[in-house]
């Protein structure tokens, strides 16, 4: 059976070729956290040869593509091989929380703050890919493979700000892309370039595949989850010990003014974690789930007492 309706791959590919994405070649990329109004903490830098950045009105997606050599191990052996791989970082315009634009030295910079981590893909040179158009066609045989955080410091999962360095000659196209983002009710901010520095131990491998604070004596799981959720939402960085004092100040202020808590409606976002417990002896499986709205006030008293 051949699908000739509006969702057929033939018609979709025709539409695909009629809508051109905003394409920026040879851009610089940095992933990090804006730890204050005027300071940016860099967690990862893109390849020296640059990357390609796309904003695609066809499906409202944004992509950062680049190539790097990656080490692969052979299962059951100690052998390794280094292959050239293409990586793709993909998120949607609706995932953009904030856009800032400014000049930094000799480049235009678009700084994007995301509400959640992007999707990650890779493909190897063995896929024998012949790119006939500067965007992805809607093929059933998609060579891209989903993957996990490719940065040694696990930056993707704990940093939510992306700095895209666009050459000056593409400044006009950048302004057109920002005008497109305005249609999604994303208000761009024109601001001066922030002070920037690398994270402590920049580039060093993380001991955990997923960064988080683990069990701490006399601190409840709910409280630890709240702290981890705040870090992974980019509310503050774990490299900011002074933020703990600021949080403490906010707690005291809220406890003295409970009306502020009642009048706060929040943003409607929530963070969720699931813990899977397997008991092999009894062949029993438990699934525990916690879901907290970001900015919630139920644990204000717990934060104070540490219970």
TrEMBL record:
It holds the Pfam family RDR6_2nd. Residues 209-250 form the RDRP helical domain. Residues 25-186 form the RNA-dependent RNA polymerase 6-like second domain. It comes from the Eukaryota. InterPro entries: RDR6-like_2nd, RDRP_helical. This is Uncharacterized protein. It comes from Papaver somniferum (Opium poppy).
